[in-house]
Backbone:
């Protein structure tokens, strides 16, 4: 059962990361759309659907499968896991931040620039790289 749950976890992580990398790109383009325009309204639908249909469920499955794997494999005793867990918590916080931005855009209340979203998109990448290195290399 462990290998099946691990496969589910990896699939969920890939889906979560795909959405987390794509959503801020939508924000970048949404910043340039005029409020009330057809383009802006289309971005609102895309952002909401991406968050609700892909990112949120993928994060939930990632967490549930991951916690099961940690418990079954007794990884909670490993030093590398503690560092990975901190990065996953940071990724989850970023997920929450993106959820709030989807609500801001939906209400036409975005206050950030496209440059901000370009930079925050790289934060997802850095967190993902750190998590993968910790899981694969297990440096400590």
Residues:
């Amino acid at each position: 059962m462990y290998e099946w749950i691990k496969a589910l976890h990896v699939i969920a992580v890939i889906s979560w990361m795909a959405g987390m990398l794509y959503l801020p790109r939508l924000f970048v383009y949404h910043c340039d759309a005029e409020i009330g325009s057809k383009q802006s309204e289309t971005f609102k639908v895309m952002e909401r659907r991406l968050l609700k249909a892909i990112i949120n469920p993928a994060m939930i499955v990632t967490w549930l499968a991951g916690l099961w794997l940690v418990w079954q494999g007794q990884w909670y005793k490993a030093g590398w896991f503690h560092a990975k867990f901190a990065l996953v918590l940071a990724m989850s916080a970023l997920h929450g931040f993106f959820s709030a931005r989807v609500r801001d855009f939906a209400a036409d209340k975005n206050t950030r620039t496209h440059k901000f979203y370009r930079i925050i998109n790289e934060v997802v990448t850095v967190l993902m790289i750190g998590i993968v290195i910790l899981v694969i290399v297990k440096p400590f």
In short: The CA atoms of residues 2 and 119 lie 37 Å apart. The chain has one domain: 2-137.
